[in-house]
Amino acid sequence: MNRDTNANFFMLKLHPMSRLKNYIQKFRGGKKAPPRAPYSEIFWSAIGAFLGILSIYEIGHISQLHLEDTLFLVGSFGASAVLIYGVPKSPYAQPRNLLLGHVISAFMGVTCALLLSSSPEIAAALAVSLALVLMHFTKSIHPPGGATALIAVIGSDHIHEMSYWYVLSPILSGALIMLVIALIVNNLSSLRRYPEYWF
User: Fold this and answer.
1) Alpha carbon distance 11, 198 (integer Å)
2) In 3D, which of 162, 164, 181, 186 has the Cα closest to residue 60?
3) Rounded CA separation 73/14 (Å)
4) Is the CA virtual torsion 135, 138, 142, 145 positive or negative?
5) Do the beta carbons of residue 172 and residue 99 sit within 8 Å?
6) Which segments in the chain show pLDDT lower than 70?
7) Of all residues in the chain, what percent are helix, strand and coil, respectively (each to 5)?
8) How far apart, in Å, are the Cα atoms of 149 and each of 13, 65, 133, 143, 152?
């Protein structure tokens, strides 16, 4: 270690209360909350979310899922709706993230559910964790993907019976429908452009 490293190590060792104080001060944040979105943004966000979720709900009925499964699946797409319609400029809301994030997460969820069916708690934790790792590697982080992976593990017997079909429908088909609606609705406003990028 060089002299500066030795000095830093010595200071940290001598002042654990100082380290604790610095750590706790991080809880305060340090920046001001951003301003509220303009009314036009709120309007287009609401229209997009309404149409997107309505479409996903209808897909659930077309796929002949049980009502409770349909509502459960809308849970992960509900979070996607907040991103792609509410903050369409977010990197997490871009098409690559929406599609790859859900598909990767669904695949990992089904895989963990199949391989670790005797330990659902481990399967659930591992599904979300591995989905996040793969989303990092593929530059496709989409936070609702965590719920998609979890649903594959803790969903009903009907979801488990779907096995890898869960990845294609309702997940991929639902994400594609939401993407089409995002392309249409987000670009109706002269103040919006979606997507920011594709890949």
Assistant:
1) 48
2) 162
3) 52
4) negative
5) yes
6) 1-14, 59-60, 62-74
7) 75, 0, 25
8) 42, 18, 12, 11, 5
